[in-house]
Amino acid sequence: MDLLFVLLINGLATGMLIFLLAAGLTLIFGLMDVLNFAHGGLFIWGAYSGVWMYHVTNSFTVGIAAAIVTGLVIGLVTEKVIIRPVYGNHIQQILITLGFMLVLQELIKVVFGPSQKAVAPPAFLEGSFMVGDIVLIKYRLFIILIGLVVFFVFAYIFKQTRIGLIVRAGVMNKEMVQSLGINIKLVFMVVFMVGAALAALSGILHAPYSGVIYAEMGLEFSILAFIVVIIGGMGSFKGSLVAALLVGCMQAFMAYYVPSLSLATNMLLMVIVLVFRPQGLFPVKG
To answer: How many angstroms separate the CA atoms of 104 and 215, rounded?
Structure first.
């Protein structure tokens, strides 16, 4: 029983990291109808820039802030230069963002070097504590907490605030929103930047969790994020959370009990969902 609980906590922590990445993609892909295959590049730049600042200042909080700022800046450049000319054209979006993903990946090697970087959790999150006979690792609980905070904050923004109303209205009918005097291009640019910042946040949080970062991991996690968005339902924050937790828990349990199948479980889960529920688990109406 103790083992099952530990595996569950590991799965929830992994799932929350994937959710933070997929949440940004949900905004960009699900709400704005933009196929952004460069999302993993934002993830890895957040990881490297945040870790660099973390090591320079010896403050994990400053590292997180640096990662978020990096995500906002690269997101701004990506939307204005890469995405804006190809709005509405999915084929061009795939080609140009996939190419930009490779550029971001190679730029990491130029700026930070090609070797892997080892990352340790901050001192206040190192170690674990016992609850009965169960060992709980502090950093994994911290990731779960951050994921929950992000979910509830964004759920509140989209459901209860004027900003959320404008975004949802802009997705449904851009022309109508523009006729009300709202700059929908600016709204979508901000949404894209926030999605990029979430990807960068996921990157810096993943670094101490895995203990090492490398340039190629951006593409790996980008694929995971797309799987989660498809399973959860495009544009659904709740769907992304549930799908990410499912994927994380399946990975944790399969990696322990059937390691040879751990990599295939994500694709298998996506196939099962698409066969029986092509619109995803929690599709957004309309």
So the answer is: 9
Using DSSP, state whether 170 is helix, strand or coil. Answer: helix
- Whether 246 is in a domain gets the answer no
Name 118's bridge partners: 212
- Within-domain flag for 112: yes
Q: What is the pLDDT of residues 162-187, one digit of tens each?
A: 887 887 777 677 777 778 788 878 88
**What are the C-alpha distances in Å from 3 to residues 7, 133, 134, 139?**
6, 10, 8, 18
Residue 108: domain span: 21-215
Contacts of 154 (CB under 8 A, 6+ apart): 23, 237
Quick count: other Cβ atoms within 10 Å of Cβ 107? 15
Angle of helix 2-25 versus helix 39-57 axis, rounded to 10: 110
| Stated pTM of the model | 0.91
